[in-house]
Amino acid sequence: MKLNNLVFDKNSFAAEMAKLRNDKHFDYLVTIVGEDFGEEGLGCIYILENTDTNERLSVKEMAERIGDDYVIPTVCHLWKSADLLEREVFDFFGIKFLGHPDMRRLYLRSDFVGYPFRKDYDMSPENNRYTLDDDIEPDFTYEYSLDADGNLQAKQHKLFTDDDFVVNIGPQHPSTHGVLRLQTVLDGEIVKKIYPHFGYIHRGVEKMCEKYTYPQTLALTDRLDYLSAMMNRHALCGVIEEAMGIELSDRIQYIRTIMDELQRLDSHLLYIGCCAQDLGALTAFLYSMRDREHVLNAMEETTGGRLIQNYYRIGGLQDDIDPNFVSNVKALCQYIKPMFQEYMDVFGDNVIMQNRFREVGPLSKADAISYGVSGASGRASDWHNDVRKNHPYAMYGKVDFDEVTNGMCDSMGRYLIRIEEMKQSVRIIEQLIDNIPAGDFYIKQKPIIKVPEGQWFFSCEGSRGEIGVYLDSKGDKSPYRLKFKPMGLNLVAAMDEMLRGQKVADLITTGAALDFVIPDIDR
Hints:
Blueprint: E1 6-7, H1 13-22, E2 28-36, E3 42-49, E4 56-62, E5 64-66, E6 69-73, H2 82-93, E7 95-98, E8 140-146, E9 152-158, E10 165-169, E11 181-187, E12 190-197, H3 205-209, H4 214-217, H5 229-244, H6 250-278, H7 282-303, E13 312-313, E14 316-317, H8 325-336, H9 339-348, H10 351-357, H11 365-371, H12 375-379, H13 387-390, H14 411-433, E15 454-461, E16 466-473, E17 481-485, H15 488-493, H16 495-499, H17 504-514, H18 518-522
Parallel strand pairs: 1-4, 6-7
Antiparallel strand pairs: 2-3, 3-4, 5-6, 8-9, 10-11, 11-12, 13-14, 15-16, 16-17
Helix pairs in contact: 5-6, 6-7, 6-14, 6-17, 7-8, 7-9, 8-14, 9-14, 14-17
């Protein structure tokens, strides 16, 4: 969608955002985009959705400058997902959110100097501020406010009491699915509080894109959530194509939809196996990995990749489908349909698995929306959030499939959603695979692609939830600001509330059932 931002006065911003949340039911905060608008200053773009009507709007708020500081009132009391989203903006742009209870860096070291996403940040090698010394993390944080005279005040909050028993869970594989560190406060085996720590593989993808041409930015999408690589690139191509007004052929749209669903099968099969592996059950992992190979075989013959997929390009596809693609995908669908019940027989209906998953990691519908826990994990809390249904793209508005939801609100519900979603993916593929129309697989573009001036946001339904890309163009060959909305950041943000009062072993189960992928979070 092309953004037509609402702009509020700095004195009315907090009240107007509360009206949007409480009176107009914009209860889903899709993302917060920090941006350096150049001479205009620093600010944020807030993208909101009404979950009853699926209407979306955007709000632009410029930060108020106080001395060398920039401030915006927090919205974390309105949307729980704003907790980490605002910390991300603070980390990269230095905007302090007034009233936010935990203004610490989110990705970078606590001793990092400066804010690297500002346009005036010195990126030269001699200005490299990283060190190999240990990062001495403070055991306190700050909450900022303005006094009666408009001066910035900082109130210190201790993160831990003297009696807290703190355990670092992670960063290691497979328990935290990669380099995610969860600083966990325990009372015996019971979880009291979780502080997530990110940034161990943060590669500055969004900053790099500001110096890349638009075709060059595509190379980074398969290095985010590598199990949603097709959808990542689909979202990036989609926002650029929408901004440029590129009309794609039906052949391109059919093939993209099929490839997205094959990627979903790939991801969900790995999920089924990893849930078992995380709980110590190897057999189910072997079964799902066996069948995942068949999915990868069908994709590889066209894309040339197995783990890494980089098939889409601006204006269509890298190449046409392999001559055997249709027959092999049809054979795959026939092979895999009986296997879904096998996964339940081997693992899903196992009494140990049921005891480990049921009523573990509870998340209500209201909290799922407030934290922005989209995708299958949100649909397990009865939130109808499927982007393919709410904001159709490619061929999703023309095929018949069910949005799978349940109201179990626990890890078992999240597991069952994936089983049923794989059936729907096969259903979508079977409707399209015999009907791929003739036509161009690529709409030729100019050698130098320039996007018209403006701001756009485009979403796809990834394997773990909504993937969004925000694009701010100044009419140049490179984006002025490119922001990837990750799926996993919202999932991890909710873990603290989901796990309070649960046991340490339930933390591993909850993480497995949420299905986050660390490069998607760290970007």
